[in-house]
Amino acid sequence: MEFGICFKGFVSPDRARKLVKQAEEAGFDYCWFYDSHILWRECYPAIAMCMEHTTKMRFAPCVTNPNARDWSLAASLFGSLAKQSGGRFDIGLGRGDSSVRVMGKKPAPLARVAEFTHKVKAMVRGEEVIYGECPEPVQFPWADGYELPVHIGAYGPKALKTAGEVGDGVILQIGDPYLVEWLGNQAVKAGHEAGRDMADYKVIVAAPAYFGDKASCIESTKWFPAMVGNHVADIVEKYGTDSGLVPKSLTDYIEKRKGYDYSKHGQSDNPYLDFITPEIVESFCVLGQPDDHVTKLQHLQEAGMTHFNIYLDNGDEENIIAQYGEHIIPRFRD
Fold first, then answer.
1. pTM above the 0.85 mark?
2. CA distances from residue 177 to 117, 224, 241, 314 in whole angstroms, order as listed
3. pLDDT at residue number 83
4. Which residues contact 63 (CB under 8 A, 6 or more apart)?
5. Residue 201 C-alpha from the chain's centroid
6. Residue 126: its pLDDT value, please?
7. Pairing of strands 134-138, 129-131
8. Which domains, and CATH codes, for the chain?
9. What is the C-alpha to C-alpha distance for residues 312 and 210, in angstroms, rounded to an integer?
10. GO molecular-function annotation terms (predicted)?
């Protein structure tokens, strides 16, 4: 099983360098960065910087979207980072949430997510590509055939279908084993039905991890179900709560949700946290003592998870990385 860490853009450059070096030495495989250019600093300079301080760790945005950049610019950026790092670059991809909504714009349709995946991967390989915003062919003379891994964030049935049909993996921002199995299976099934070989398909669980007593763990991570609820609210608005297309346990918890403040996206001081219960926090996150983390991760692995990506947004980052390096990651290595 793979392990990753994920930063927001408010981590200082010096601290980011130290944390990625510590994480690589601890056995982590990936470092992800939020891609939300208004709320936090642009993530790609930080990724390039951290690449220079590691040798094995892979890097990726978690997640970018089709509306943030011209597609040739995005492909050139991704291909350049892949070349600069010796092939250690992936992307996470979504419709666009905080990075576009904070500007009052709408997320991209799923058809655009799928087209972006195909066209950007082709440009990074070095193929000649025509896409909607650019009537003339685009081809990078410096491209060398790199196959860009694209992992698609999803909750709803159509997004999961898209992730299975065109992605190299699905990103599930939730740490509940039942929901991970339910959602992951939808993506994998869609890939099989599209005739794809899903043997190496990744099911990436992105969620906070925290060590300590129950009360302190819950207090430090209760922001996360609110962020998840923001996405689930979109699904409920589209499909309702009794469609059968989304697990009822995923939709029930937002019944008392009153709103969401995008300026506080993914932060503990978001004013809309009142609907979050301790039980939901425990369900969605990985909390407690080292043995509790191992047990929860084993359940998630049994549910289909192949990669656990820790949102390091709760404080105590150095300790979390150290605990995983000493007590957790060795338990999941062959």
1. yes
2. 28, 16, 20, 22
3. 98
4. 35, 91, 92, 93, 94, 151, 152, 153, 171
5. 15
6. 98
7. antiparallel
8. 2-212+289-332 (3.20.20.30)
9. 9
10. oxidoreductase activity, acting on paired donors, with incorporation or reduction of molecular oxygen
